[in-house]
Design goal:
The protein has ten helices and twelve strands. The protein has about 250 residues and is α/β, with parallel strands linked by helices. The strands form three sheets. An eight-stranded parallel beta barrel has the order 1-2-3-4-5-8-9-12, surrounded by four helices. Strands 6-7 form a two-stranded antiparallel sheet. A hairpin with a 2-residue loop joins strand 6 and strand 7. The longest helix is centred in the middle third of the chain and has 19 residues. About 40% of the residues are buried.
């Protein structure tokens, strides 16, 4: 089985990209990451950004794009951009509702956006936080979201820190959504329940990485929302630990 590549979610280095987008991409490539997940495009055209990433040897694991409030014209423009960029996965990064019906309404919107994207060769995914594990009559919001969407139209980017923070087991969720989870957000949890570099906390990475290939995971994506050391040091440490594990 081919090794699953490791990307970096560029949101982790947002303070650096704001000052020097291209220079930060070069630093990510120098660390050894195989790709990036984008959370902004440096005001570059798709053609220019694709060329930059190609020159650096960085693949595109996906991009976070707010889809719920887009008009059809805006969504079509986003699809055009990502097709030109060579990105396959559009990931909706956040949604919330205070009722089961609210989550069903979100599901309906994401399913429609996903169908529109799929018709042109792109895949929509959803990125969870912890609140999606709130239960409504015994069913979590995440379960409502995926039960009320076509798997072909909405797949999962499981964020394993937030899965654990929400009280669920990452391995169980990967298995539950096998063949619907192409992207995994990899971040660890320290003793205080806060963000930590991969391999520096309590998540069972050996079991996670044993389960992921069979579930159809295509990319491991390192992300750290908040870093206690300089962010570039954090993403380097995560990569070095993944390398020691034989993953990177």
């Amino acid at each position: 089985m081919a090794k699953i590549p490791v990307a970096l979610q560029m949101y982790t280095l947002r303070d650096l990209t704001e000052k020097d987008f291209l220079g930060t991409l070069k630093q990510v490539a120098a660390i050894g990451y195989a790709g990036v997940e984008l959370a902004g495009f440096g005001n570059l055209s798709a053609v220019k950004l694709k060329a930059v990433l190609g020159d650096l040897g960085l693949g595109i694991a996906g991009a976070h794009v707010g889809l719920l409030d887009m008009s059809e014209a805006e969504l079509d423009a986003a699809i055009d951009y990502h097709l030109a960029l060579g990105n396959k996965y559009l990931v909706h990064p956040w949604a919330n509702a205070d009722s089961a019906d609210g989550w069903r309404a979100i599901a309906q919107k994401l399913n429609a956006a996903g169908a529109r994207c799929r018709a042109r060769g792109l895949q929509v995914c959803y990125h969870n936080h912890a609140h999606e594990f709130t239960q409504f009559d015994g069913t979590t919001a995440l379960e409502l979201l995926y039960a009320n969407t076509d798997p072909a139209n909405l797949q999962a980017e499981l964020d394993l820190f937030w899965v654990s923070k929400g009280g669920s087991d990452p391995v169980d969720l990967i298995e539950q959504y096998a063949d619907r989870v192409p992207l995994l957000h990899c971040k660890d949890m320290d003793a205080e329940g806060e963000f930590a570099e991969v391999g520096e906390g309590s998540l069972d990475w050996e079991e996670i990485f044993a389960t992921a290939p069979e579930a159809g995971v295509q990319w491991y994506i390192v992300e750290q929302d908040i870093c206690k050391r300089p962010p570039l040091e954090s993403v380097t440490l995560s990569f070095q630990n993944l390398k020691k594990m034989g993953i990177a």
